[in-house]
UniProtKB/TrEMBL annotation:
GO terms for cellular component: membrane. It comes from the Bacteria. Its EC number is 1.6.5.2. This is NAD(P)H dehydrogenase (Quinone).
Length: 207
């Protein structure tokens, strides 16, 4: 029986579309690597009321992530807009519900990365990426940022950090990804895919 093709999970929350556009570039980077595929998933918004008002399946776009999407992935990228230098509440709410995976070590030794979008150039991109890094480390994942071999990190005048890809969306959140931001998000997805394949092989040898 042929083993299923490993996949990298691209998990994001996006309100105005900028983080989604980044996620799609990571997907392209992942799928540029033979032998691995990308799985794009989002999370529902958090409601301030006690009653659930959103459908279980969104009307359009990526479907909502499940714990099994995380459990069986070979690698994980999480993305969020910045909320006061932190990840957005919907993504944190979802991650806070992954204790079952943590208890079983389901994500241990799998590669992970993060990406973000902000309205302003100094709007907390690096702190937001670090806020997403912390739960990944608690899960025992191997964090993979962006190395300076990607020369766009030295050339960008907008988004791009060694902690992960980023984007400056502008005060109306309508500025498209520029050439450097697009390249770095693609490179991040490609690097994650390569590491996912390598670490997947090591885990199979150890099992």
């Amino acid at each position: 029986m042929t083993a299923p093709r490993p996949y990298v999970l691209i998990l994001f929350y996006s309100r105005h579309g900028a983080t989604r556009a980044m996620a799609e570039r990571l997907v392209a980077g992942v799928e540029s690597c033979p032998g691995v595929e990308a799985r794009l998933r989002t999370v529902p918004p958090v409601s301030p009321t006690c009653e659930a008002v959103d459908p279980e399946i969104p009307d359009s776009g990526a479907v909502y992530a499940s714990l099994d999407d995380l459990r069986h992935c070979a690698g994980l990228a999480i993305g969020s807009p910045t909320r006061f230098g932190n990840m957005a509440a919907p993504l944190k709410y979802f991650i806070d519900g992954t204790s079952e995976l943590w208890l079983g070590g389901a994500l241990t030794d799998k590669p992970a990365t993060a990406f973000t979008s902000t309205s302003s150039l100094h709007g907390g991109q690096e702190t937001t990426l670090i806020s997403m890094l912390l739960p990944l480390l608690h899960h025992g994942m191997v964090y993979a940022g962006l190395p300076y071999s990607e020369i766009e990190l030295m050339e960008t005048a907008a988004g791009g950090t060694p902690y992960g890809a980023s984007h400056v969306a502008g005060k109306r959140s309508d500025r498209p990804l520029d050439e450097h931001e697009r390249h770095l998000a693609f490179a991040q997805g490609k690097r994650l895919a390569r590491l996912a394949l390598a670490l997947e092989a090591l885990r199979r040898e150890a099992s």
